[in-house]
Fold:
Amino acid sequence: MYKSSFIIVFFIILISCGSKQEFVQPTVEKITETIYASGYVKSKDQYQVFSKANGILVKSWIQKGEQVKKGQVLFTISNEVSKLNTDNAQLAAANADINANMDKLRELSLNIEVSKKKRDNDKLVLERQRKLWADQIGTKFELEQRELAYSSSKAAYESAQLRYNELKKQLNFSSQQAKKSLSVSQSMLSDYTVRSEFNGKVYSILKEQGEMVSPQMPLAIIGDASSYTLILQVDENDIVQVSPGQKIFITMDSYKDQLFEASITKVNPLMNERTRTFEVEANFTKAPDMLYPNLTLEANIVLRTKENALTIPRKYLIDDEFVMISKKVKKKVKIGLKDYQKAEILEGLTKEDKIYIDLK
Structure:
């Protein structure tokens, strides 16, 4: 009795110490090789609205879900300093306007007329004195005095012309400069009115009235709800295999157990150094009935498909090039297409072969 019990126990221990193995045989079936990518949904022309200036948000003219048009006023921002600067620029422009300085020009114009008359008069007196001197009437001193008076009045006339031209030039420059300053101030003041860049739908308003805003703070998110784009993040190791036109299978948490098709439209060539990924854009072949911006998704980008491929489960592969054809014998195989569950066998196995895997 004791001997029989010992044999049974020993047999159980021997079985439990041995490794268990299961096997499968290759099957002929369709296989599709894909690349995995994660991503999200983005509406057409979706963008964040920013202010061009610092200030306080005094008025929001929109509500969530509202449709807006390009150029429509979205927000009004207050900045008293900018308004005062614009008012000062308007005063400066009005003061520097050439029409406001016509009195100064008219005064110099009158000086030119007086100087011209005196010059002409001194010239006549000089010519008369020269005729008298030719007839030996008068003195040399009187002739020299007439010549000096004419030279002085001529110089005064030319000086009056120069002062007039210089003042006119200066007034024109000041007027143009003041107008430009006013234009800059008015342009800066217009930065405090935020307008929509596109026709679209208001998805989110990120700031409330009374809050401080700056060019670094988004105020709202707007996009075109009539069309959506898929934004995918593809690993740098896979990007060389991705190109426009490739088919994509999409799954979304919002539509469980449903599979959607899409097609790649654009591969952005700049890698994100932080995530080591490339951004790829795609469009639905047939979009779901209802979509919202920023819905998350998972994608499988189709590289190749083969209808009648000899396949085995990937878990039976060892280092992607060996399989176990018995409990102790390894065999090298050549791999073709792979998906996440199975791999195509190009060489090394037939569908009658058995391959094994240890179950620890």
Summary: DSSP finds four helices and 18 strands in the chain. Residues 1-18 have pLDDT under 50 and may be disordered. The first helix runs from residue 2 to 17.
